[in-house]
Structure formats: C-alpha cells, structure tokens
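>> received
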Amino acid sequence: MTRRVALAGIEFDALTEDETVAAAIAGLEQGRGGWIMPVNLDVLRLASRSPTTRELVAQADLVVADGQPLVWASRLQGTPLPERVAGSNMIWSLSAAAARAGRSIYLLGGDPGAAEVAAERLRARLPDLQVAGLYCPPFGFERDPAERDRIIRRLREAAPDLVYVGLGFPKQDRLICDLQPALPAGWFMSVGISISFAAGFVQRAPDWMHGLGIEWVHRLLQEPRRLASRYLLHGLPFAARLFAGSLLARTRRAGGQPAKTASITRSEARPSSSEQKRSTKRA
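>> returned
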C-alpha cells in the first residue's frame, strides 16, 4: 500500500513520477483501470474550502503533488513527498511507457486544434505510440447530456488504454467519474492545460523556474487578466497559510500532540463513501 501524506485535508500518494507511471502500466497489465489526479496549489486551495471538492479528489486512485510548494509544505511538516509529479511531464513519460508496452492513448480536451498537434508531436518523439483517438468537446459540453453521451460512445469505440482529459478542474474530473464505467480497464489522467502545453499552444516555464517553484510567474505573464486573481489574490495567501499549518503540524508532532496539517484536516471532514472506496482500492 502506498504511503500517503495529508495536506489541507487531501491525502497525497508519496510517489515519484516514475513510480506513478509504473503503477498505471502495471494496472493495465493486470486488467485494472484507474485514475491519476495531479493536484496543484489552486486545486488544493479549492478542496480545502469545499467538502464536495474534497470528495471529488478522493475518488481518484492516485493523487500526486503537481507543484513544488506542496512538496515544500510536506517537508516542513516532517512527512515529505518525494518530488513534484506534474501532469505536463507525465503526458510525455506515461506516453513513452505506453509506447514501450504497446498501449494506446486518447487525447480528450485542450484548446481547439491542440489535441491534433499534440498527437503529432507525441508520435514524432515516440514513433511506436498508438493514438487511439482525440476529441475536443464544444464549450458548455458539461451542460449537454447528448454531448456527454457522444463522448462516452467515442471512447467505447476507440477503446484506448490511457485517456488524457484536459478540460480544467473540476469539469475534467467530473467527466472522468462519468467515463470510468464505460472504460473500466482503462486509466484516466487529469491533465488540465497539459494538452495545450504538449501542442506548443501554451509555452511552459523554463526548467529552472519549475525548480524554484515560480513557474506560476511565467504563466501569469502569459495570461495576466485570467490568472492574476488566482495566483496573487488567492494562491499566495493560501501558500502562506499552508506553510504555516505545516510548521504547526511538525511542532505538534514533536510535542506528541495530534497533528493538524493545514486549514482543513481529516478530523474536520469525515471520510465520505468515495474516500472509503479509494482506501479499499489501494489496500
């Protein structure tokens, strides 16, 4: 069973990127489907405030830390996560593993035209990769039952092994909950904007910025109007509270007191049926 680390009421799997990829491929070999959810600082902030959002995250089979601040917070509280596990990296590393294993992928979402270009780029780097299909749902798809049924039908017909769903949190994740019964032996991964990253439609920050945990500055400079509120008004204050809560948790643990990991803890949100299901899957 994977070691888990609690941050702000969310339990993260203490896995490296390589271990996460290996777990998905092993699941495919065993005929067992699953769902990988990389959680960044903004998703953690939303989940810390909403029991419904926490319950949605808890339904994923593997929850990994997509953000250096989350890794730092885990170290501050004395329960370190091994590394950042980013969906924007795994769209490449998991595809490489799929190509070696003779498995197929499906690209669902991204900006209009991004899935086609991303598929071309992935095939150029990974000639053995099988792309079972791609689709960009129209705006407002989540309010259209007929469109939801169309997506399910497309997936059933394509029968991919891995599905990258890049429609933004929480739309992509709610959709995955609907799609899993249609593809029970497949693996899904929530990838957010990563399909557009892979296509080159949106430029990723340089590696040195990722190492310093400031890739958000690069994204902010690209889309200041859309992202200023998320990063400056909400993200930075939440990060400060997360670090403070992590230090407090470490102090409590050192003093033999029950640890609190941030503004919301497991004791403040009783495990839902979906959380219990997740624990049972991992056992």
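>> The longest helix spans residues 224-254.
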